[in-house]
Amino acid sequence: MATPFLTTSTTLSLSLSTHLHRLSSSLSSTCFPFKPNLHRVRRNPSLLASYGNPHLFNHEDHHSTYKSLLSTGVLGPKSNFLQMDPSETSCSREILVKSSASDSSNTVISTLSQKVFGVLHLVVSLGIVLAMDKFLKQVFVAAAIKFPSALFGMFCIFSVLVILDTTIPAAATSLMNFFEPALMFIQRWLPLFYVPALVVLPLSVRDIPAASGLKICFIIGFTFRNTKSYLYVQRRGKYRMRKLGDIFCFDPELTVMKLQISVLDSSAAGGWLASLCVAGFTAIAIRKIVKTEMVDAEPMAKPSSFAPIEFWTWGGIFLASFVSAIFYPTALGTTARTCLPFLLASTVLGYMVGSGLPSAVKKVLHPIICCALSADLAAVAFGYISQSGVDAVLGDYLTKVSSNPGAGDILMGFLGSVILSFAFSMFKQRKLVKRHAAEIFISIILSSLFSLYSTALVGRLVGLEPSLTVSILPRCITVALALSIVSLFEGANSSLTAAAVVVTGLIGANFVQATLDKLRFRDPIARGIATASSAHGLGTAALSAKEPEALPFCAIAYGLTGIFGSLFCSVPVIRQSLLAIVG
């Protein structure tokens, strides 16, 4: 008969064996040695400190712990409980090191895969927007429709999003999220796409007589200095100063008119400033009349700033392609293609440098201006070194030939996509658009009419030739629609129209923020409408680069100003009244 001690010992051994078997089965897949719950047996600081860290594990302490367990009498003298041979210890340490390395490699792979997926997402979403723009252009050309296809597409996309938001909100949200990378890319580089027209501006105005050119500049922008404006004229070799109230008393012997352009505290302005004031103050007045309470706009994401690696990459492209084009002018088949890399790089570098200027400097020297100056300086340098002349280089910058594109053609190829992207920005602010619809539409209509009639009147008063005055009537309307408007008038100069639009946008881009601040336009609605109604795309690009909340209202005014202007000029009564004022 077994003694009670043997019975108890056997039972305890069996229960321990069963418990250890279960634990070893659950831990066998990891190859880690079993770690007992030592606080119930004996606290060993060395073993506890080494738990989970093979570098702190002390084998001597482990061996002493093993001996202490034997001395308790719970385990038999021949028990192998917790006994590890050298191969098991080595396996444990190797597994821990491999596990740490595996976690690190998994993190790297995960980060890399996210970046690759982000790039693919950007390429696909931007590609779809570009494809939509190209498809709409082909359809409009085939149908002989002169209306800009991108504007039509913008309003169509906005309508679709609004309908989806009403019926299937999840679908509208999914579409917005899908195109978000493309929208951020376009917003980041938005001003760059309007620069080519500024770069080649010297080619557009070189055939205009000096006296007529100065009068046109006067109509578009004259000077306000300390709330007084002065005009300097040269008569019989002597300069005379006349106040703004006397500028319409022109002498037939007037030979040269010199405009003093000063910076705000002063502000460069004129027809542009007048249009801006009409649009902005009208929006605020209508809001007060209809008693619409202003609410905060939806926050808009801002694009990331430029990294040093981007600057050095474009700098390397510029140097390599510039030197290559000097020694091998037709290395890529034509001079336009060969000059494309360094002219594109100089344009991008100018924008990056301009974006990095202090805020005080950017109020008078906008990144768009830096961008155009950088490209022109590169053209001058290459024309001088290669002895081809700056006109030839600028001609290669914007060829307007799809089979032989220049740097400007590449950038302007995004303009249609830019306009399409405005639909998504408008949709983000749809609540404000609906809430303030009255002030938006009324201010844009009045601003469009004011721009047309004021230009005609001032052109008549300063004695500008009727054909030239007609050519600059749509100075506050985007180029595509401005050209279609002047085609309704006989004898108009389309090159002059494009130049006047560009100069108006240039003034607006450079001075719009400072002027809006001076006029105390605080809300994004008044700022956006005033900007786009007076300086179209260039002003929109300049303002939205710093104030993305104003972009949706810039987009609405940008499109509606052109649409209303086209509609007004299509009405025979209005067109004849404009011609009567012009003379």
Offer a quick outline of the entry.
The chain is mainly alpha-helical and 583 residues long. The chain is 67% helix and 3% strand. Among the domains are: 211-303 and 430-582, no CATH class; 308-407, no CATH class.
Attribute tags:
mainly alpha, 67% helix, 3% strand, two-stranded antiparallel sheet, 5 strands, three-stranded antiparallel β-sheet, 583 residues, disordered N terminus
Question: Explain this structure to me?
Answer:
The chain has helices spanning 4-27, 45-49, 59-71, 86-142, 149-167, 169-189, 196-199, 201-205, 210-220, 271-289, 308-327, 335-355, 359-362, 367-386, 390-397, 407-412, 415-428, 430-435, 437-461, 466-471, 479-486, 494-518, 524-544, 551-570, 572-582; strands at residues 223-224, 230-235, 238-243, 256-258, 267-268. The protein is mainly alpha-helical and 583 residues long. Among the domains are: 211-303 and 430-582, no CATH class; 308-407, no CATH class. The strands form 2 sheets. Strands 3-2-4 form a 3-stranded antiparallel β-sheet. A two-stranded antiparallel ribbon has the order 1-5. It is a multi-pass membrane protein. Its main location: membrane. Keywords: Membrane, Transmembrane, Transmembrane helix. It comes from Gossypium harknessii.
